[in-house]
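Feature request, filed as a ticket because there's no other form

It would be nice if the structure record came with a short human-readable summary line next to the tokens. Right now we just get the raw output. Example of a typical job, pasted below so the devs can see what we mean:
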Amino acid sequence: MNRIDLFKRDLEEKRAVKVIAGIDNFNKELVRNVVSAAEAGSASAVDICYDEEIISMVREMTKLPVFVSSIIPSELANAVQLGADAIEVGNFDALYKKGKRVSANEVLDIVNETLRLLDGQKTFICVTVPGHINISEQISLAMKLEELGIDLIQTEGAATVSVSEAGARGLLQTAEVSISNTIELVRNTSIPIMTASGITTTTAPLAFASGASAVGVGSCVNKLNSTIAMIAVVKSLVESASRKSSNEFVNI
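Raw output as currently delivered:
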């Protein structure tokens, strides 16, 4: 069984946990710490930026499947040649921080150009559906991605949310849009859905209960100050995925 098959197994069992180092995180030491924590915490995969040295470093230090995220088709195609087990169109949070937005058509353009560059090479591909576009556009985009043979869709939404509460209420507010997008996409497509963007140990169980096959977690791990704390959070996420509730929210 190769690396990506391990992720596919967890995906099929609807308990996959992907730890995201960050699409704009080029700090090798921080990436190393995040990946180490992901492996020690028994995560299903890690997600890193496109950087040849970082890809090489991560491939050598972990047996976990390695996702490489970018919005540049040539980087995504080259990441496969460098040893990425999966590529991801996204994450877009780095763009949102700069005040930019990406449309459904732009996402399709990136995907189609990436597929052209891959020239039929079999690769596991995940695509982030922008959380700021309306849900009908998200569903339409997801259906088109399904026709293209995309393996996994990632939701988002935290960048569109204005959090007004502290504590658990704030965590729920942050995750609300991404989880609601998950429910709609699960209802309308056959592609596995990974809920990401603002997901934490508090809200990950809600994502799985909403029909997600996976969660993608970034800041709740990579913003911590110690590897020990990172490992503890990853373990908690993996444990909650393993004992997740049935998909009771999907039929609401």
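Something like this underneath would help us a lot:
Strands lie at 16-20, 45-48, 66-70, 86-89, 124-128, 152-155, 193-196, 214-217.
Confidence is low (pLDDT under 50) at residues 245-252.
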